Amino acid sequence: MLLSSNAGPDELKKLVRGGVPEKLRGRVWSALYRMKVHDMREAKGPNYFQNLCSRTAEAEIPENHKRQISLDLLRTMPNNIQFCDRNSEGIQKMQSVLHAFCLHNPQLGYCQGMNFLVGMMLLFVDAEDAFWCLVAIVERYFPSSYFDQNLIGAQADQELLKDLLRNKLPKISAHLAALDIELSTVTLNWFLSLFIDSVPIEAGKAFSHQRQAELVE
């Protein structure tokens, strides 16, 4: 299999970028994310996620996070049968993962966009692996400021995008400026959800392949 081969980092990245077969996607994605958080999983112990889930019923999560999570649950892939109503299994798992993350990282808590990251992962992995995938993305893949209250990292990416647009597509950039359209009002959520909410589902999976490839060191 891909991860048990003797492929070096560059070759492994190339293989992942080429796409992972559907039936192997959960195993490969989980393995790549585990590589990023192996030390943390070892330090926290094997029952860490279950322990967090058992605490979520004790009202330790700030109300503003619980309220926003509740609102965002049914906004996540509403046309997918796993997330179509509040009692569906996918919605219950997503809520557990997001609540657990709020307890795991109380300084950050919940940021809109995390629901789409978790939703995509839950299509292929179980709730515990989805939790660790979220930890890897938020705490190891991106800088700590990307999903914080001020979204400093994500806002910096919006400025980079504007520069790219001015350099690569100057006519479109000028047209948006003439209409007084602030690009980030459209694109910020694209970045926070890693484009999962902005493109067709298959394209979202393709973006996920690219992201996972960058986890290879």
TrEMBL record:
Signal peptide: none annotated. Residues 19-217 form the Rab-GAP TBC domain. PROSITE patterns: TBC_RABGAP. One of its GO terms (molecular function) is small GTPase binding. It comes from the Eukaryota. InterPro entries: Rab-GAP-TBC_dom (IPR000195), Rab-GAP_TBC_sf (IPR035969), Rab_GAP_TBC_domain (IPR050302). It holds the Pfam family RabGAP-TBC. This is TBC1 domain family member 2B. It comes from Caerostris darwini.
